[in-house]
Amino acid sequence: MARWDIFCSVVDNYGDIGVTWRLARQLAAEQGHAVRLWVDELSAFVRLCPAANPDAESQLRSGVEVRHWREPFPAVEPAEVVIEAFACQLPPSYIEAMTARGSRRLWLNLEYLSAEDWVAGCHGLPSPQPGGLQKFFFFPGFVAGTGGLLREAELLARRRAFQADASARQAFLQSLGVVRVAGARLISLFAYENAGLAGWLDALAAGAQATQLLVPQGKILADLQVWLGDAQLAPGDQRRRGNLQIHVLPFLAQDDYDRLLWCCDLNAVRGEDSFIRAQWAGRPLLWHIYPQEEGAHWDKLEAFLALYGAELPSDVAAAHAAWWRAWNAGEGMEQAWPALLHAWPVLQQHAERWCDSQAARPDLATALEQFYLNWLSYAA
C-alpha cells in the first residue's frame, strides 16, 4: 500500500475540489492506498461533503485523510506519490522535503480535461525540476494515449439499476420536493451566469411538452431570478410560467447530484466534474465550459464537439453543435432549441453509446495506478 498526497487549490468554483475528492475516495477504496487530500478552502469541500468539519486541520472522510492546506505548512513526510491538481503550486517546504529525503517520489501534475488533439502527445511527459526531482504531466482524456475519465468501478451498474427502478427515482425526487408530472420532460440546470438562459426559458415555457427544470443552488440562479422577476429564490421554491415549472434545489452532495443526473432526461452542466458525471448518466447533456481569457475555451469546446459528434448523422451533429455554441455564446438558444428537438431520439441513443465507449477504456484512477507501477519498475 502506497501513500498518496493530492493537493487541491480551490479557484472560484467546485470543479477542482469535485474532481480531487472523487479521485481521492476512489484511490483509497479501490486501490487501497493511504490518501491525504490537501484542500486550501475547506468551506468548498463541505459543500460537497456536508458531514465534514470546516474548522478541522485533519479529518477522516470516506477513508481519506482530509487536511487543511495553509501556511505555515506543517512538517510532514512526503508521500510516495504526489499529485498537484490542475497546476497548483506545491508548498516550497514540501518540495524541499521531497528533495531532502533522497528516495524518489512520483510527482504528477494532474491537468484539466480536454479533447484537443495535442493532449495525447503531452500525456506522461517528464519535466525536470530543481534538486534532481522530476514531474510528469498527466492528462485525463477521451481517447487512447490519455489518462481516461474518473469513473468508479461500479458506477454504471449502480446508475442503470437506479434508472430501472421507478420507485427509487420517485422517492429521490420527492426527497428534494419534486413530484414528477406525467409526460413532463425533466431537465437539470447547473451553469455559470448565462445571458442565453432567458431565450431558452422562453422556448421551454412556450413548448408543446411540459418541462420541469430542476436548478440546484448556484451562479445561474441570478439569471433565473431576473427572468422570473423574483428578488430572491431559495431552495424549495417553485415557479410556473406557461408549460415550464421551475424547482429550486439545495446545493447537493456529490452522490445526490449523481442521482439527480440519473433522474433527468437532459442535464445542463458546467466545468469539469459535473461534465464528466453527466456523460456517465447516459443522457443528452449541455455543457457550459469554463470561460477563459481570449476565448481559449472555444478550442476545447470545438474539440469535444468534433469527437462527440463524429458518429452522429451530419444534420444531428450540426443541430447539436449549434445548440452548444449558442449556450456558450449566451445567445440564440430560442432558435437552437427547437432545431435540437427534431434530433432528440438520435441524441438519446447516442448518449448511451458514448457512455459505453468511454467506459470501455481504463478510468483515471486505474490509469494513475498503472502509471505508478510502471514508474516503480523503471525506477528499480
TrEMBL record:
Catalytic activity reported: dTDP-beta-L-rhamnose + L-arginyl-[protein] = N(omega)-(alpha-L-rhamnosyl)-L-arginyl-[protein] + dTDP + H(+)
Keyword Metal-binding: no
Record-linked InterPro entries: EarP
Keywords of the record: Elongation factor, Glycosyltransferase, Protein biosynthesis, Transferase
An example Gene Ontology molecular-function term: translation elongation factor activity
Taxonomy, superkingdom: Bacteria
Role, per record: Protein-arginine rhamnosyltransferase that catalyzes the transfer of a single rhamnose to elongation factor P (EF-P) on 'Lys-32', a modification required for EF-P-dependent rescue of polyproline stalled ribosomes.
Family note: Belongs to the glycosyltransferase 104 family.
Protein name per Swiss-Prot or TrEMBL: Protein-arginine rhamnosyltransferase
